[in-house]
Amino acid sequence: MRLIRWFLFVFCAAAISTGCKKDLQATAKLKAAANSPLFAKWELRIERGGLQPDRNFAAGNGNIVQFNADSTYAYYVDGAVTKHGTFHIATQAYAQGPEKLDLIYFDKSTTGEVIWLQDNVLTLGDSAADGPSYIYAKK
Q: How confident is the model over 111-134, as a mean pLDDT?
């Protein structure tokens, strides 16, 4: 079963990255200088993953993540900081060939999670293998 999930993850990642060259260029801007579109406040809109249905959040729900140009981040719930620290982004290959995904590493973690930025939508995590993913809208 894990092999099937891993195959589905790799297949989906390859399909996404080969089918959306413009989106890959937008994601590459994550690592750009201080004008990166990542550096902003983002409000949670959808939580998905596992065997549960999507959980939708209305605008103004107070679940915020903020990324700053000095490589710091903060999570807020109802205006109060619940977690903060540093982050870095690295590109990793998941399939044979040129397909690559950007991963974000929080604090000193050695396990990254997929980060995807398209227009004013930020996705953290990956639900392809029943893992959680969180979709944010720029505030």
A: 88
